[in-house]
Amino acid sequence: MSKTKLDRELQEVCNEISEVQQRLNALQERFKELKRQTPLVCDHCQKKSKVCELTYIQDMWYERPYGCTGGDSWHESDEANYTCLHCGKRNRCYSTVTQYNKVERGPRPWVMELKKYFKDVVREYDQR
After folding, report:
1. Kind of pairing, strands 120-125 and 73-83?
2. Angle CA(18)–CA(7)–CA(5) in degrees, nearest 5?
3. Per-residue pLDDT reduced to its tens digit, 46-71
4. Which of 96, 88, 95, 98 lies closest to 44 in space, CA to CA?
């Protein structure tokens, strides 16, 4: 294989990689936009709101100091909330009902995975 033929083939592969990367970037942006449009149903009024319209309220808990250097810090809890735009009531992201109405214990992981697609994320500190 001559150097010029090798150079041409390398350039073709580089061009192809660039095209695939552009397509991948476009698909990732479309994926993000679709995730932002995910509807959440209020547990109180049953009305839907898009994730991109809501504020994710992350509950924080405090770890008291212990020993010489331990604790004295805030941590994200397994619970979070969002406030319904229609009725103003809070909905927990920690529930026993899943997206498909199956009963399970623990957080609604499908809501918590959407955290980065909410309009805003605020932290709420435990005042105990």
Report:
1. unpaired
2. 125
3. 999 999 999 999 989 898 899 888 88
4. 88
pLDDT digit string (tens) for 3-31? 799 999 999 999 999 999 999 999 999 99
Longest Cα pair distance anywhere in the chain, in angstroms?
75
The amino acid at residue 33 is E
30 backbone dihedrals φ, ψ, rounded to 5°: -65, -40
Tokens of residue 3, six digits: 């150097």
What's the rounded Cα separation, in Å, for the pair 95 and 79? 9
Which residues make Cβ contacts (< 8 Å) with residue 7, sequence separation at least 6? Answer: none
- CA distance between the termini of the chain: 74
Task: Quote the pLDDT of residue 95.
Answer: 46
What is the per-residue pLDDT across 67-107, written as a single tens digit (0 to 9) for each? 888 888 998 887 789 999 999 999 987 644 455 555 554 55
How many residues does the structure list for the chain? 128
